[in-house]
Amino acid sequence: MSIEKLSTEEFILRGDKAVILDVRSPGEYVHGHIPGAQSFPLFTDEERAIVGTLYSKSGKESALFAGLDIVGAKMSAFVKKAKSLAPHKKVLVHCWRGGMRSAAIAWLLEFSGFDVKLLEGGYKSYRAYIRESFAKPSNIVILSGRTGSGKTDILKELVEMGEQILDLEGFANHKGSVFGHIGQAEQPSNEQFENDLADIWRKLDLNKRIWIEDESTRIGKITIPDTLFLSMKEASFIKINIPLEFRVERLVREYAGVDDESLIVDLLKLTDSLGNLAVQEMTDMINEKNYKLFAMRILDYYDKRYDFSFSKKKGVLNQEINLVGKTTKEHAKELIKFMGQKCNAL
After folding, report:
1. Residue 101 in contact with residue 24, Cβ under 8 Å?
2. For the domain 136-345, what is the CATH superfamily, name and number?
3. I need a labelling partner for 60 at 20 to 30 A (CA). Which of 34, 140, 219, 314 fits?
4. Structure pTM?
5. Would residue 95 show up in a list of annotated catalytic residues for this protein?
6. CB neighbour burial string for 92-127, b if at least 16 within 10 angstroms, e if fewer
7. Does the CA dihedral 171-176-181-182 come out positive or negative?
């Protein structure tokens, strides 16, 4: 009996309630994997390299026998591990292209009494599918504002109020500016960033409002998927204006004393834009713990960059609002009220 192969869409849907076994090598898994999938490597990275070398130098048959020698000694361990991960013996299995690696594990597990389904086309098909998913028609609203406006925190408050968001900076572990990595976990691979985004994207109602922070194509070392970025460029757009003192206080809270050494190293990257004198003056501010004055100076730099960039977007500006609340929760409430008034006016 042949093992059933599922389309990517069906595979992902079933994966919400079933155990997904990713039989690629550990290195492949770490670089990028389906969210929630368990690493279940047929070969270690070293074993995969050996088999691959034999395939290229000696042909398919030599590689096959080498692979069988490696796998044969581990067959019972595979079954035991699968039972521990899926006590009910229902699993979804995939490799890179839906080839011999997933077929081998699927055969072994089915022989051992498991209910097994395979991913048609493997992880490669999954990657193509998720990138295309971002191109689906959606009701995106881009939230724009100067550095320090608290846009990410406003998004989090909007979630509490029943709104849908896609937190790009949260998934990227980066706040967007040259200093955006400070205090953040290491950024994921670009591939995993896309996978994690797609996992949230597919669960959103694309007919309802989806808030996304205004971003350039890159967030630190991460690049936003082309299909999503194009959708963002064509989306509704709202600019928030928040008083300078509020933004200064926010930057001081986020960066003061967290990692002064990194702050100075990152500041040096702006020497060509700011000039040697300005960088030295701002370095002195950091060393003297005068974070408020530093924040005011760096915001002046970023405000000029933002205003220049924003001037290019005038054609797509739909709405603008001055937020007067003292907290991000109040700002989120103001946004909801503002959007409601706009909808009622239509």
Report:
1. yes
2. P-loop containing nucleotide triphosphate hydrolases (3.40.50.300)
3. 34
4. 0.89
5. yes
6. bbbbbebeebbebbbebbbebebebbbbbbbbbbbb
7. negative
> What single string gives the DSSP state of each residue in 81-99?
HHHHH-TT-EEEEE-SSSS
Residue 50: its pLDDT value, please? Answer: 78
Domain spanning 5-130, CATH architecture: 3-Layer(aba) Sandwich (3.40)
Distance between CA 189 and CA 195 in Å, rounded?
A: 10
From the candidates 42, 71, 86, 95, which is the catalytic residue? Answer: 95
Phi, psi of 274 (to 5 degrees): -90, -30
**115-119/139-144 β-pairing:** unpaired
Q: What is the pLDDT of residues 33-45, one digit of tens each?
A: 999 999 999 998 8
Question: Mind listing the pLDDT tens digit for each residue in 292-325?
Answer: 999 999 999 999 998 888 777 655 567 889 999 9
Within the chain, all domains assigned CATH 3.40.50.300 are found at: 136-345
- Please enumerate in sequence order all residues whose Cβ is within 8 A of that of 231, keeping only pairs 6 or more positions apart, or say none: 134, 135, 138, 140
Give phi and psi for 238, each to the nearest 5. Answer: -135, 130
Start and end residues for every CATH 3.40.250.10 domain found in the chain: 5-130
**pLDDT tens across 110-142, in order?**
999 999 999 999 999 999 999 999 999 999 999
